[in-house]
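Write out this protein's structure.
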Amino acid sequence: MARLRPWLQTGIFVLAVVFLGALIATQWQQLQAYPWQIEIGWLLLALALLWLTWLLELNQWRFILGRLGGSLRFGEAARIWFLSNIIRYIPGNVWRFLGMAEMCNRLGIARTVTFTSIALHQAISTLAGLLLAAVYFALAGQGAWFDRLRPALWLAPLGLIFLHPRVLETTLNWALTRLKRPPLRITLTVVDLARLLLTYGLVWLGFGLGFSALAAGLAPVASAQVPWLIAGYAAAYVIGYLSLLTPSGLGVREGVLVLLLQGLFSAPLPAIIAIVARLWMIIGEIGGAAAVATWQWATQRGPPPNVSSRPSSDRHSSRLSRDRVRAAVLALFVLYVVGFSLLSIRPHQALRTHMADLGQMDLAIWNTSQGRFVQEIKDDFVSTRLTDHVEPIFLPLSLVFHLWNDVRALLIVQTLALGSGALVIFALARAMLRSSSAGLATWAPLVLALAYLLFPALQAANLAEFHAIPLAVTPVLLAFWCNERRHWWGFVLACLVLMSVKEEAALLAFMLGLYVLSQAWLARRRDREAISPNPPSRDRQPGWRARLPRLSAITAGLLVMLLSLGWFYLATFVIIPRYAAQVYGVDQSVYFARYGALGDSPLSIVRSFFTQPALVWEIAAEPSRLTYLAGLLAPFGFLSLLAPEILLLSAPLLIANLFSAYPAQFSGEFHYSAPLVPFVAMAALVGVRRLLAVRPRAGRLTLAWLLLWAFAYQIMAGYTPLGREFRWPDVTPHAALLARFSAQAPTAAPGSVHRALPALQPSHQALQVPHPGRRRLGAGGCHRRHRPPPGRNSTRGARPDRAGLADHRCSRWLRSPAAARARRTPSHRMFIAFL
């Protein structure tokens, strides 16, 4: 039998794959014909709930392991948990447990202790899932199958007898004996087991809610269907797991889900949901493994804090606090990404986004993904974004469209980029506040990360459709982090990414290079004054960085300064003027005209600061501009003023915003302030460190001050449900028609939209028609003057009750000879939209 076991495992694995393939094959025609309408917000919520539920589940495993004598930090447990998830798809469900035991053994925990904890975890978790599903289906299940199974389902609560430690130990040892495994000893009490059962019930509730959100992302789900989905997923998961030899219940879980969902959805939706649920789980596992690997890489640099002098109980308490804080920061990050992804996508669904800016950005990035770098349409001719800005970062960003060809992908990427800054702030604060008291060093990073995420100007940039400059936030913070850790190649790389965001971002890179250079010069001067024979070697780069050419702080600073200054000159005074002259008739950036009385060219603007100081003061002293400055400092409680040299690094863009005659730049309500946020946050962090150096006992008061200002200003000007600026636009039935009509347009056809509307779908030509005023005009088939042929491709006032007529007219015109001629004419291509 032992010789046949590997072949049996492989055979069952092949059968599972064949079963899954047969399931897809039987529904293939229906899958192709199914009108896919994905709600990305629900899918993101499903992924977030999956990750949060896993964090709760692994914490229960940590609790069991701790009661058995094995202690793990939360970060270590998360790494073991998520990395072992990847190997469980090997046939046979034992490989994940072997991997967990081996990784725990490397941390000093005996393999028998790990196996015991895993056995208890799986037993109690399975019991909780079975109880949840059995009780619900015994009460709510309808049909012949449930009538036959109901007596057995009512027997499921008898499983509570396993909460007695002796019964559980005897049962597990009997099963282990049959499997030729050594027996185990359970040290958990009845109270421990009852607590674990209740908590695992919450775990299954979390998995079920995530699965319900996933289903809602694929089809409408009524609130009355959610309990069935929760119980159905628990039943399918447990049955798939108890299949033993199938890897992660592959095929079995999907089959059970299809059977249980047939009463809720019509075919082929049950099969679609079952297959997508498997992909959801796989993506979650890969994402979790990548996240813990990245987190470990980012936090293992440098020596650990010196805690050898503390009592062992204090060290254990401090370690638990740090684990909770890490979990809290990750939860805040996930909450921000999911929440603001939904908030940024919602206006697009409600037709509140525009051709300028989201449509233009989408078109330029999509064209880049097709090999036409930042090509766009201005009025009635093909042009390029290089007439306005130089944004090389659009080249790697365009790869997103090869994963998901939808403008909403850009909004999610922008949210991820802004939210990631909180993780960097957290890592920076941990590194810079290590020498503080234990409580402050633990909780201050969390408070600073929270204040960053609550920054109204950051949230405003996140919701101002899509722009390149908000992508500068995280590279700036990474540059500060590399400076703090003396990773000079990393600093140069972060600055190169920063320069690629936009031409003015090169000025920020220049200031960062100047900051590093000045720091290195001051440090060298202090060393000479101290006459130190052995100056500290802080530039040593361990590990793989040792193979790179050695780079000092001075060299890194000078290199960044030279590259950024050269790139700024090339982009602003060579590339942009060349293309702007062809379109605007001027040989400079048109944005220099935004400075009103100060001048309309770089030279005249700079000259005005020296020749017209009264005018400069008059502009700077305007109440709206002073309010703008206060709004930048208030979210961190004005603690940024304690590090003025950090604030000074943002001077180029701060001055550009403050003295602009364009009110949006100093309103704090658009994207212009986003690159200033990391400097304010970093200045606040340095300010906190300096304040504690002078007043060590003011730690709690400082954190309370930060929290007070962060929440108070969020309420005054924030964009979360707490804030005054929170918006959740309604998606009317009229707006919901857009997805139906845009899906009928030819994939390769250019589009025609007016300025008030977003890009309907990516196309290498998106022509702009005159604004139709108050009329609801369906624009399409645009000829050279961009007016739709009368009576053919326009439907005025297309109401929901006339959707069928609009569909008919749209489809009929698409098949007409006029549409065929339009498709054959390069400058005369069409796109239909009924609005």
